[in-house]
Specification:
The chain is α+β, with helices and mostly antiparallel strands. The protein is built from 10 helices and 17 strands. The protein has a 7-stranded mixed beta sheet. Strands 12, 13, 14, 15, 16 and 17 form a 6-stranded antiparallel beta sheet that branches.
Amino acid sequence: MKKKIAIIMGGYSSEYEISLKSGNVVYQYLDSQKFEVYRIHIFQNKWVYLDINDEEHAINKADFSVHIGTRKIQFDCVFNAIHGSPGEDGFMQAYFELLNIPQTSCNYYQAALTFNKRDLLSVLRPYGIRSAASYYLNLGDAINEDEIIEKVGLPCFVKANKAGSSFGITKVYKKSELKTAIGRAYQEDDEIIIEAFLDGIEVSVGVLKYKGETKVLPITEIVTENDFFDYEAKYEGKSKEITPARISNKQKIKVTKIAKRAYDILKMTGYSRSEFIFVNDEPYMLEMNTTPGLTEQSILPQQAAVAGISLKELFESAIEEALNKKS
């Protein structure tokens, strides 16, 4: 009998449109001969199943089921394609854990931890994983511009602590620009991380569970036309993503080892994509994404393709891993 797979997409954050694209790519590539696949839109005001005619059927949140006519559908596995809240910050993971429904991303604690840039980097730092000098602010804190500049220097990056796709991020060159950048970041989150600028090669490293093993995918080099790898660069063609990255063998060995170590330290499962910048051949971690983009143009699928893994294989493996984790 075919497994019933719910692909959750959308979400509550600024990343919802990107998530819808990812979810629809997963829907397109999953084998209908193996699975009954259902598109589930998760929004603040509604959770609905979209049928082939794009008609909406309400999801029963009590057990994550849906009625189609007289038939009640309950799912064997959930494919998580939500970027940002509530799919990348632990809420959906905890919900499915309570319902005992397998899902493809990491567990709720790991999701919450990795979604919080400040906490992630603080946890990994004692293990020797380097990160930029940083300064933290919470909404309502006094803003001492001189203290910030003394700690991180100029230029620096002002980032929303819990946001993705470069929403709420500004590169600041002058003291006079700090308060505007901080205000922009607060539009995305009530916590901020301000980081020193690291001048070097930026790379993205995909790590995942694939056929029962932890696998590091070929590394991607990020070359942006913009001042940094912002939303335009990521999604509007203002960057080059070169896989495999044009880095030395020494750099490749180092960043591969560190990305895998971080994955293992955190007891991760599912997909991850970690960002690093090399400074004097040393990789400094910026962040880890646990529900990365899954369109044909996204970085993780590009890396999988270079590794000889098709999108069909990539997505089906995630479902198999989730089902095996439950059994």
